[in-house]
Amino acid sequence: MTVPGGFMPPISRFQYAPRVDHRMFVLLDPRSRPTPLDEGLPEHDEILRAGQHGVVFRSGGDLFRPAVTIERWAADPGTADGEWDEVAEASLSAPSGRLRLRSIMGEPAGPDLEVEGSQRLRAHTRGRGEAMERLTVETGYAGVEEWLIQLWPTRA
């Protein structure tokens, strides 16, 4: 459905608050191996590292819950409006048709997303600097760091 002005809204939008451990959280196909954690972790200057079946995200903080929004789109929606500190893209495959946002220790952040096969992902983030300032000072907080993750199917 196209709304006035020709803008196509996302197919779905979900809000999550995943637990961040070791300054990371992950989006992965829960039934596929290897996991993105097995394939390498983001460098300290990267916000994500893609593996074959998922993506590991690097947070600015640790032991807290960032605000994460995941949008599913029919096609590339373009970079989101607003002021974002960093934006990065990756590709991943979900052979099971499911993606799960979870902590690197395995704690699910909410229900799995239903997707079809290969996906493109664009991650936007802000507030990582403020979350980093809280390292070793505060734990267990929520929000502060925000993520918008856009997913859309890749076309062969």
What do you see in this structure?
This protein has one domain: Sandwich (Substrate Binding Domain Of DNAk, Chain A, domain 1). It is mainly beta. The protein has 2 helices and 10 strands, in the order ββαβββββββαβ. The model is unreliable at 1-5 (pLDDT under 50). A 5-stranded mixed β-sheet has the order 1-5-10-9-6. Strands 3-4-2-7-8 form a 5-stranded antiparallel β-sheet.
In a few lines, what is going on in this structure?
The chain is mostly beta strands and 156 residues long.
Topology:
Blueprint: E1 12-16, E2 24-28, H1 36-39, E3 48-51, E4 54-58, E5 65-72, E6 86-94, E7 98-103, E8 113-114, E9 117-126, H2 128-133, E10 142-153
> Which topology does CATH recognise?
Substrate Binding Domain Of DNAk, Chain A, domain 1
Compute the gyration radius: what is it? 15 Å
Specify the structural class: mainly beta
Coarse morphology: globular
Q: Architecture, CATH level 2?
A: Sandwich
Proportion of strand residues: 35-45%
The helix/strand order is EEHEEEEEEEHE
Major beta sheet summary? 5 strands, mixed
Q: How many β-strand runs?
A: 10
Unreliable stretches? 1-5
Q: What is the number of independent domains?
A: 1
Oligomer: single chain
Placed side by side, the strands forming the largest sheet appear as 1-5-10-9-6
Arithmetic mean of pLDDT? 93
**How far is it from the N-terminal to the C-terminal residue, by CA?**
24 Å
Helix content: under 10%
- What is the tally of helical segments? 2
Could you give me the name of the CATH homologous superfamily? Competence, DNA-entry nuclease inhibitor, ComJ
Q: In CATH, what is the class?
A: Mainly Beta
